[in-house]
Design goal:
mainly alpha; about 60% helix
């Protein structure tokens, strides 16, 4: 098995960088402020918050999960196909 097929070195494995990039891109420059009815944007941010907890990079896992839940609820309120 080569290193590219190893589960621990997969290039598509989520990392802290992926989570930070998702949050950065959606907040730059206030993208959700410009598109406040974009349910998928809130969903992606909720996934980024959850990923930080899963990766162990969140400074406050409880706060991150609370925010992820709030973002998910907002996403579903805007687009019920995300439920």
């Amino acid at each position: 098995m080569n290193s590219l097929s190893s589960p621990t070195t997969r290039p598509d494995k989520p990392t802290k960088v992926h989570s930070q990039a998702a949050g950065y891109l959606l907040n730059w420059p206030g993208l959700l402020a410009m598109e406040p009815d974009w349910g998928e944007g809130y969903y992606i941010l909720s996934e980024a918050q959850s990923m930080e907890v899963w990766l162990g990079t969140s400074k406050s896992p409880k706060e991150s999960l609370d925010e992820a839940i709030a973002l998910s609820e907002k996403a579903v309120s805007l687009d019920d196909s995300l439920s």
